[in-house]
Design a protein that fits this description.
Length: 348
């Protein structure tokens, strides 16, 4: 049974570069849900995660929502938060019936994390909230959104999480909505380049005993780690996906990403890997919550079209003076020009 989700509003304390809500639409104030809405969700799930925006900006509203969720029969109640204000209210939320906390972590140090949130000091605030949640007996899990600015340092995160008592970790390929759509080329990484770093980080997590998952990545790019994938709603597919054995369980690609890169990284799989959905900790990762709608936008032409339009692709053309005066040098000529580069190799 999939965990229910409910947004309390879209007001937030951060300005994250991957925010799926940041656009021209006004933010909605945080407000407690109706009992009728909670009862309707309870009919399909026994667990719920309350999100936003940032729910901790209205502590009374959040605590009221937690109590109401408990009263209608939810046995597991979580909050998805950036950590703002959590340190001051974790204990009271636990008393009201909160069972788990899902935080967003963008890097293993303040420099990386605060860059993504747009708020200096947010890294330290987050960890104060995590410490308070752990002291209150709450389960804590963390999600890191894969971006162009963090994928090379993902491997530093698992050890930090394990040391801070975080139960599980999740690497999420972003959806191009809101700010992540407006600044697509700034935010969205080339997946064939970024995912190997994510897979290496997941392996480090396994070694240190931290449960770790990935979502939103085409299964053909995950190789043997596809079994760590958790299900998300399907996005878009390329004609290369036709005939792939994993098509029915694969999330595909974000449509804007697919339009930008034309699916040139994709390869059909011959197997259908099992997901990690059955693992208890995986159910705590419910996705980004409410998002801005996919809207028409001007995109760059697909990269393949740009390559075909270039006068030469690959090795640069020699300058006119070089062509007129001498022939091109091969790589072997380096031995004659810079012999010191090769001394250590030959001596060793």
């Amino acid at each position: 049974m999939r965990r229910a989700t409910l947004s309390l509003g879209t007001t937030c304390s951060h300005a994250c570069i991957v925010c799926g809500l940041r656009d021209d639409a006004p933010r909605t104030e945080l407000a407690a849900p109706s009992i009728e809405r909670l009862r309707a969700l309870r009919e399909t799930s026994s667990a719920i995660t309350l999100g936003g925006g940032e729910p901790t900006l209205a502590p009374d509203v959040l605590e009221s929502a937690v109590r109401a969720a408990r009263d209608v029969g939810f046995t597991a109640i979580g909050v998805h938060t950036n950590g703002h204000g959590l340190a001051a209210i974790a204990r009271s939320l636990a008393s009201a019936g909160l069972t788990d906390v899902h935080v967003s972590l963008h890097g293993a140090d303040a420099r990386v994390h605060d860059y993504h949130t747009g708020r200096e000091g947010s890294f330290d605030v987050l960890w104060s909230g995590v410490a308070a949640a752990r002291a209150a007996g709450l389960r804590v899990v963390a999600t890191t959104v894969l971006t162009r600015s963090d994928f090379r340092v993902l491997s530093e995160i698992p050890i930090l999480l394990q040391a801070r008592g975080v139960e599980a970790w999740h690497v999420a390929v972003p959806l191009a909505r809101g700010a992540a759509s407006d600044d697509f080329d700034r935010v969205y990484p080339r997946l064939a380049l970024a995912l190997p770093f994510a897979l290496h980080a997941l392996e480090i997590a396994r070694r240190v005993g931290l449960r770790a998952y990935v979502s939103g990545a085409p299964l053909c790019l995950l190789g043997p780690i596809a079994s760590r994938s958790i299900t998300t709603s399907a996005r878009s597919f390329h004609e290369r996906c036709d005939g792939c054995a994993a098509r029915e369980v694969c999330p595909g690609l974000d449509p804007i990403y697919l339009a930008r890169f034309d699916g040139d990284e994709l390869r059909a799989r011959e197997d259908r890997p099992a997901s990690a959905d059955h693992e208890p900790a995986a159910s705590l990762f419910v996705g980004p919550g409410e998002l801005a709608p996919l809207r028409a936008r001007t995109t760059h032409e697909p990269v393949q079209s740009a390559r075909r339009a270039l006068p030469m692709y690959g090795r640069p053309r020699r300058a006119n003076a070089e062509v007129a005066t001498r022939s091109a040098k091969s790589g072997e000529a380096l031995r004659e020009i810079l012999p010191a580069l090769f001394e250590r190799e030959e001596d060793g």
